[in-house]
């Protein structure tokens, strides 16, 4: 039981750190379209992910050696004690953090797409890309530059 508790504590610590780093990444992406601070945050995330994988692999190895399918089943098989109560509490905390960890990369991804679109828009404006006659005066002749767009982005 000590191995399980130790492993769950490690996972909980790493998941909390990962949530903190993902929040920092989201904040960096919201505050600056230039991505200031993003590199260091991503490097920190990259350092946490292998550690999280290692703790999960150790837990899965332990469960396999005990011939049990999941950690909840293992904890339920143990006699009621302070240790089993601690393990249940840690397991519920880890389970509560996992959806948060899954949602945050989606948010960061959407912010990255929006930043890319913003950059594309600004490059098109700076390159004097013009829209076609769809947005011009009715009956106006098409502009000579109407087909010019660096990234084929809509303006």
Description:
The protein is mostly helical. The chain is 71% helix and 0% strand. It has four helices and no strands. It is elongated and about 75 Å long. The model has no long low-confidence stretch (mean pLDDT 81).
- How is the biggest beta sheet arranged? none
Please mark out the parts with pLDDT under 50 across 5 or more consecutive residues, or reply none. none
Percent of residues in helices comes to over 70%
H/E element order: HHHH
| Helix count from the secondary structure assignment | 4
Distance between the termini: 60 Å
Could you report the average pLDDT, rounded to the nearest whole number? 81
- Please tally the β strands and state the result: 0
Oligomer: single chain
DSSP strand (E) fraction?
under 5%
What structural class do you assign from the helix and strand content? mainly alpha
Shape by Cα distribution: elongated
How would you sum up this structure in a few lines?
With 155 residues, the chain is mainly alpha-helical.
Give a quick set of tags describing it.
4 helices; elongated; 0% strand; 155 residues; mainly alpha
Give the topology, please.
Layout: H1 2-31, H2 38-65, H3 71-77, H4 82-126
Helix pairs in contact: 1-2, 1-4, 3-4
């Amino acid at each position: 039981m000590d191995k399980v508790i130790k492993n769950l504590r490690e996972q909980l610590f790493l998941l909390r750190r990962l949530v903190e780093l993902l929040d920092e990444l989201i904040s960096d992406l919201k505050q600056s379209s230039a991505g200031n601070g993003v590199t260091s945050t991503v490097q920190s995330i990259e350092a946490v992910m292998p550690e999280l994988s290692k703790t999960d692999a150790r837990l899965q190895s332990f469960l396999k050696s005990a011939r049990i399918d999941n950690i909840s089943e293992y904890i339920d098989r143990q006699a009621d004690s302070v240790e089993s109560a601690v393990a249940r509490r840690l397991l519920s905390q880890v389970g509560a953090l996992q959806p948060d960890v899954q949602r945050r990369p989606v948010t960061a991804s959407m912010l990255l797409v929006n930043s890319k679109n913003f950059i594309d828009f600004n490059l098109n404006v700076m390159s004097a890309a013009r829209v076609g006659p769809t947005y011009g005066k009715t009956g106006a002749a098409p502009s000579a530059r109407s087909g010019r767009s660096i990234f084929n982005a809509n303006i």
